[in-house]
Amino acid sequence: MFRVLVVQALTGLVTAFACGVFWGLVAGYSALLGGLIAWLANLYFAHKAFRYFGARSAKAVVQSLWSGEMGKLILTAALFALVFVGVQPLEPLALFGGYLLVLGVGASALLLMRNKPKH
């Protein structure tokens, strides 16, 4: 999971830089904020979901996954609300683009790592 978070962070930074270069400073920091929202929510989920390791307590593992996902959704909504209320000017397309890219890279990285044999 640590590698996925690192790839997501790098994706957010590269996206923000590219948006800043091609569409200006507002688009750059908007994309950075979108990527940061996705990354922080995934960081929270990873912390909550992987607290319990192994099969010692299946109930605790399920509860941890559920609370991690619910917390992730609430945190995502709260961070978007804070950004929309507190950051002006803002480029919504860049914000959502940064968010979706970081989210998509995380999902595809998990799929790629799942299919990659361990050495």
TrEMBL record:
Segments passing through the bilayer: 28-45, 66-87, 93-113
InterPro entries in alphabetical order: ATP_synth_I
One Pfam family of this chain: ATP-synt_I
Keywords: Cell membrane, Membrane, Transmembrane, Transmembrane helix
Cellular localization per UniProt: Cell membrane
GO cellular component: plasma membrane
Membrane topology: Multi-pass membrane protein
Protein name stated in the entry: F0F1 ATP synthase subunit I
